[in-house]
Amino acid sequence: MDPHLLRTFVTVAETGSFSAAADRLRYTQSAVSQQIATLEADLGTPLLTRRPVTLTASGERLLRHARILLVRLEAARADVTRATAPPGRLALGLTPLAWSAPVAAALARIRAASARLQTRLLVAALDRIVTATATGALDLGLVDGFTAPSDPLRLPEPGDPGALRVTESPAVVAVPAGHPLARRTSVDLADLADAYWIDAPAVAPFGRLPVDGLRAGLHYDGAEVTVLTGLVAAGHGLAVLPAPLLAGSTALAAVPIAVPRLVHRVELLRAPATTAPEDPATHLSALLTG
């Protein structure tokens, strides 16, 4: 199967539209239609229905394989590029809440050891960091989320099955300092079904909390942690955040969560290529997980 045809198929499946896929890929709509028809003829089965555009059963099966195949192709390209690139480069990606003082200190040690180290730092949403690390566009990825104590994060495809735990800290409900909940010693999230929450997909994904019935009163599409905490402090809604983030804050109060038991977990993802012992990514990985 031609990778270009697979990429077009995945784009149509993700956008749900031939015209939207054409815009994203910068093709004409007729070119997209022709590529899908060529792929269907090659496999001998319809992959998509038209009007509306939906996946057939065969299309759903192919989509699972296609995404993995495309990631592996990008990983192969990145591996070859890395092998021929000049030494002394480090590409690190992280989700906003994965950044911490220990991470900054570890990165400072790596950079101090090599004055010529070219460092790239990408802060982005979980899906992007996972994909960029899996394809080798990043040497290391630091991702975070909320989970039961000692449970690994549930990562989107193609997540790293060998992800390493970096830190675990208590998860708390962040509320304004003067909020009635600020005086509580603990809270059950299910009891806050009538409260307004802030949905910040790139920072603290509201939809990934293991509680049904909570509702978002405000959607924040940015990735600035200080903006999110400022919105909470101003009374726009509540958010589940790692307890260390609120330490020393006079504008926010941290209310421990009794039910469900949750921790904020940071994990380290590594690019699929094997790195040499003296590689900066290897040193940084050892500092973060040692």
TrEMBL record:
<keyword id="KW-0805">Transcription regulation</keyword>
<dbReference type="InterPro" id="IPR005119">
    <property type="entry name" value="LysR_subst-bd"/>
</dbReference>
<feature type="domain" description="HTH lysR-type">
    <location>
        <begin position="1"/>
        <end position="56"/>
    </location>
</feature>
<keyword id="KW-0804">Transcription</keyword>
<keyword id="KW-0238">DNA-binding</keyword>
<dbReference type="InterPro" id="IPR036388">
    <property type="entry name" value="WH-like_DNA-bd_sf"/>
</dbReference>
<comment type="similarity">
    <text>Belongs to the LysR transcriptional regulatory family.</text>
</comment>
<dbReference type="Pfam" id="PF00126">
    <property type="entry name" value="HTH_1"/>
</dbReference>
<dbReference type="Pfam" id="PF03466">
    <property type="entry name" value="LysR_substrate"/>
</dbReference>
<dbReference type="InterPro" id="IPR036390">
    <property type="entry name" value="WH_DNA-bd_sf"/>
</dbReference>
<protein>
    <recommendedName>
        <fullName>HTH lysR-type domain-containing protein</fullName>
    </recommendedName>
</protein>
<dbReference type="InterPro" id="IPR000847">
    <property type="entry name" value="LysR_HTH_N"/>
</dbReference>
